[in-house]
Design goal:
Distance between the termini: 23 Å
Largest sheet: 8 strands, antiparallel, barrel
Helix content: under 10%
Order of helices and strands: HEEEEEEEEE
Number of helices: 1
Strand content: over 45%
Structural class: mainly beta
Strand order of the largest sheet: 1-3-4-5-6-7-8-9
Number of strands: 9
Shape: elongated
């Protein structure tokens, strides 16, 4: 009976199970234009990411996500025309996360590498922007760190590149069904 409180306060050996995440961040967007008619006049915005994942072990997890990366400002290369509108970025993806430290997700302070597949959707808010996607399916990769605040809650900071023209530096939280 005396061991029960000690076991509840000790770090859990179960880092597996469902987790949910929400991040806010700053984005850098730089659409490519092969026609040469446009230029990007605003590359920074704010964005958010929602994720759901499953940790299979203390080192490996799989997750799916939706990320709204905000908008890039588009202008004509002709200075007399100027700003044309915005191009919005929204992505969906699935991938994996690897936590390299000895105790993996059980560490109070942990590092992570992530990567997978991403589907990008773009929408212009002006008919003046005739934008063709270079591709809509690609690879993403990122690095991050997490600080466990309480048994089920972790504060995370991540830098993720969803494509060479879509990046986000985010700060967020993860809630785990099982204590980490």
């Amino acid at each position: 009976a005396l061991l029960l409180p000690a076991m509840l306060l000790a770090p859990s050996a179960r880092a597996d199970g469902l987790y949910l995440g929400a991040d806010l961040g700053l984005t850098h967007l730089k659409p490519r234009d092969s026609s040469g008619f446009y230029q990007v006049d605003d590359t920074s915005d704010s964005g958010y990411r929602l994720s759901v994942g499953h940790a299979f072990s203390k080192r490996w997890a799989a997750e799916g996500f939706y990320v709204d990366l905000g908008k890039a400002g588009i202008a004509s290369r002709n200075g007399n025309i100027g700003h044309l509108g915005h191009l919005r970025y929204r992505d969906f993806g699935v991938g994996g996360e690897w936590t390299p430290l000895l105790q993996g997700r059980n560490e109070r302070l942990r590092l992570a590498l992530k990567g997978g597949l991403v589907v990008t959707t773009n929408r212009a808010d002006s008919p003046s922007i005739d934008y063709d996607k270079v591709h809509n399916v690609g690879f993403y990769f990122g690095v991050g760190a997490g600080l466990r605040l309480m048994p089920h809650w972790t504060l995370v900071a991540e830098a993720v590149s969803y494509d060479k023209d879509e990046r986000m530096l985010g700060l967020g939280v993860r809630w785990s069904r099982n204590a980490e």
